[in-house]
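Hi U.,

Before I forget, here's the chain from the pilot set. I'm dumping it here mostly so it's searchable later in email.
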Amino acid sequence: MPAFSAEVFVAEIDGAKVRSLRSFYTRLARVLHFPDYFGKNLDALFDCLCSLEHVGRQEVVLVIRNFDLFLEKEKPEKRAAVLQVLRDAEMPDNRGDAVVFHVLVQH
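Structure:
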């Protein structure tokens, strides 16, 4: 994994531990400190990812290790939909905060 400055909030999830959507939502909510009312669906995921000012950093990087195992128990279209939400949340025009958000995958 690349080295990040202390100003960057780095959240890591292991694809081997998030093979289902349910486990992904639970783990991601924990590492990114989502509010208790996080709805555990794609719309809520997008909303929370686009509003990360609560982490207190100007930049947030989500690292997904073992990406080949990430959501492997889900149908390919579900996995693709989650990945699209992650990519959409990276786009500055979609953000509701001043945070720069990136997703980094590692195989």
